[in-house]
Write a structure and sequence with these properties.
Radius of gyration of chain A: 24 Å
Strand content of chain B: under 5%
Largest sheet of chain B: 2 strands, antiparallel
Helix content of chain B: over 70%
Order of helices and strands of chain A: HHH
Shape of chain A: elongated
Oligomer: heterodimer
Strand content of chain A: under 5%
Distance between the termini of chain A: 82 Å
Number of helices of chain B: 8
Helix content of chain A: 55-70%
């Protein structure tokens, strides 16, 4: 399981890649790519997270139970973001029927 | 006659607690436990990330304006510092595995120092926010150049951005402070020689926590500092 001793070289290589990705994401922020900027920033962040988890957190050598628990966590997070955003982003797609709108305050004789 | 004391001891001299068959089983249980905790942490931070996603989408201009006030060089430098601390943490675990007590203590202390540098830079950045009067609620009165950059997105929505900035980096910094306390405890135990190549679960567990906090920052840096580009 997690008793495997990872070679020093692997740790250093992972660290150098992480620094490289940090410099890359900072550099890309100065290039106008429109909406793609956000996508690039997130893809780089995910790549860095996967590097840290696989090597520094020894996920490569972890058992199935750890992986399932982690997957459940990510699945919940994906649900949270996806369902919340799909609610907010679709609210204005259909306007309420005219009959529901208040046109004028009720008048009293 | 069986040794009554050994029978009732909570933890024996190898570090094995009495409810476990052997050290391998104990370490698997410890590792599983911390991963379970980290998943609850994903959910804990997740709520804040979800709220951030909504308001960034609703008030994008204000969030981009607020983001451009932050010093991108300090953010990037702090990312490098935290990644370096993750490297020294990973090397601490490796030193424990190879039974090198001296290297273990040195790498643990290095990790603490790098964590301290990160918090120091963070404190400087927080102070800058007070200097620029862009601390929501407490000291919100942006003026001059800062005001000019925040105004297009709407000042109230810019203030909302800084609420997120302080809440998310503050919660992250709190985790760092707790992590440094844990590291200090590890240094004390490591110096006494509590850890062996067979028993180093506490180092591994604190390491996993430290790497998790690093991952949170890996997302906070682009999400807070790099909104809308700097071109």
């Amino acid at each position: 399981m997690s008793h495997q001793i990872v070679p020093l070289k692997t740790y250093v290589l992972v660290f150098v890649s992480l620094i490289g990705l940090t410099l890359l994401t900072t550099a890309v922020a100065f290039v106008d790519l429109g909406a793609v900027n956000t996508v690039v920033a997130l893809v780089i962040a995910f790549s860095k997270m996967i590097l840290v988890m696989l090597f520094f957190m020894h996920l490569r050598h972890s058992g199935g139970l750890v992986r399932i628990i982690l997957l459940a966590g990510f699945f919940w997070m994906a649900l949270l973001i996806a369902l919340t955003m799909s609610d907010y982003r679709t609210r204005t797609w259909i306007s309420p029927p005219d009959a529901w709108s208040i046109t004028a305050p009720p008048t009293h004789p | 006659m069986p040794d009554v004391h050994a029978e009732h001891a909570q933890i024996d001299h190898t570090g094995l607690a009495h409810q476990f068959e052997d050290l391998d089983q104990q370490q698997d249980a410890d590792t599983l436990g911390i991963w379970l905790f980290l998943v609850t942490e994903i959910m804990f931070f997740g709520g804040m990330f979800a709220a951030y996603a909504i308001f960034r989408w609703l008030y994008f201009a204000a969030f981009a304006g607020g983001s451009h006030i932050l010093d991108i060089r300090l953010g990037a430098a702090n990312t490098v510092v935290l990644l370096a601390s993750s490297l020294t943490m990973a090397l601490s675990v490796r030193s424990a595995q190879t039974g090198n007590r001296r290297a273990l203590v040195v790498f643990l202390i290095l990790t603490m120092i790098l964590g301290g540098v990160f918090l120091g830079v963070k404190a400087y950045e927080y102070n800058q926010k007070f200097v620029e009067h862009i601390v929501p609620s407490l000291d919100w009165a942006p003026e001059g150049d800062v005001l000019a950059r925040l105004a297009p997105g709407g000042l109230n929505h810019a203030q909302l951005y800084f609420f997120f900035y302080f809440a998310m980096t503050g919660l992250h910094a709190l985790h760092m402070i707790i992590g440094m306390g844990l590291l200090f405890w590890l240094v004390l135990r490591a110096r006494k020689g509590s850890f062996t190549p067979r028993y180093f679960a506490p180092v591994e567990v604190v390491g996993l926590y430290w790497h998790f906090v690093d991952i949170v920052w890996i997302f906070l840096f682009p999400l807070l500092y790099l909104i809308g580009g700097r071109y």
